[in-house]
Amino acid sequence: MSMAAPSSLLKVEEIQGRGRGMVASQPLKAGQIVLRDSPILLYSALPLVRQSLSSSSSSASTSCFCDHCFRILSPSLQGDSSSSTVLCPNCRHHCFCNSNCLSNALNSSHSSWVCQALSHLRANSLLLEQPLEHQVQVNFLVAAYNLANISPSDFQIMLSLQGSPDDSTIAAAQFLHPLISSLCSLALIGPQNGFSLELTSAILAKDKLNAFGIMQPFSEHDDQRSVRAYGIYPYASFFNHDCLPNACRFDYVDANPSDDSHNTDFIIRMIHDVPQGREICLSYFPVNEKYSSRQKRLIEDYGFTCNCDRCNVESNWSDNDSVEDNAEEEEEVMDEDQCETMAASDTDDHPHEDNNDFPHAYFFLKYMCDRTNCWGTLAPLPPQGDTPCNVMECNVCGKLKSDNTFDIDEGQDEVSMED
Ligand SMILES: C[S@@+](CC[C@H](N)C(=O)[O-])C[C@H]1O[C@@H](n2cnc3c(N)ncnc32)[C@H](O)[C@@H]1O
After folding, report:
1. Taking every annotated instance into account, which residue ranges of this chain make up the domain SET (predicted)?
2. Ligand 1 centre distance from Cα of residue 240 (Å)
3. What is the pLDDT of residues 197-209, one digit of tens each?
């Protein structure tokens, strides 16, 4: 199934050795929003079995976000009669931020089939003994087969994404498919509609390569942010990976007003200018990861070996070298003007060839958030017409920072939204 171009700014093209990718249809500016994408499917990253809100006299529930829109629910409000939080009237297990979200959920993500399917699965002792990964995969499979019922065209879009089953996906499908099959009597899905072990393997493979994590809010005290939900985003799935990305993803799951049903939309913004025809890439994980761990993740999770400029340089580093240490050393020898020049030269075809063994230092100094444990990527706020914005936003912690990267003392470079 082919999809229309996502916007006038981007087109989907075949790229040798990388499958499809997103390419700039015109010159793109730093901070420019090149894509807004809504998920066709969202599912909880929490294990299937959680303490029910209704069964708890204390506020010990682990459910801390809405099961439909995945906004954070204030723990103090859970169980509070003045709260707008509501439980599903049927299972009394799933929690929604307000009656509007509940009513949307009952017609979509928490249809009566999903409600019954998850209730049956929660009672399945075989599943409860399984590792967390299988319990989360069950959430995905129930959401995916629900999608097949409520929006067959979106289900087909998901099937058209990249990903073929590998040994681990097939093994997971062999365990999970019979469990889901036992729910078929509850559903419209059945063998007559193509429901099979092969289809279960195929959609698990799509999920593995394409699901994006919607993360818990950033905390300086926790360098391992957990995932609250996963989503399949049909256009964002076409971005290939680069260890020096030229665009990054922002989400504002909790920030949008509670009556806005687009709170889980992704916004992809340019980190710096790029010329027409250049491939637009995201980094699939925080940019500070070391060469060896990046290579491991990319081969294990995504099935490819990265040959980007940065990997070619860092393959010669010792395993103890980190971009943070090297960037600090570089900062001492590089002034602001040099950094600006190097960032601007990203529009060249052969950037930075004249530099030493860390030609990408400018990227970490200019575009990596320096807040403790954050490792987010900074992109400018959108330009106003042709005027670039000199305020950078971190896509993890949300910190705003003026784009005067150097010679500014710690703390003095932060700006507020009003600036
Ligand atoms: C989310 S998909 C990206 C879109 C995909 N290329 C397609 O054709 O739909 C992730 C997959 O794209 C491919 N890919 C992404 N970045 C790549 C890169 N830098 N080099 C080679 N393949 C890459 C890998 O096969 C990876 O599993």
Report:
1. 8-285
2. 5
3. 999 999 999 999 9
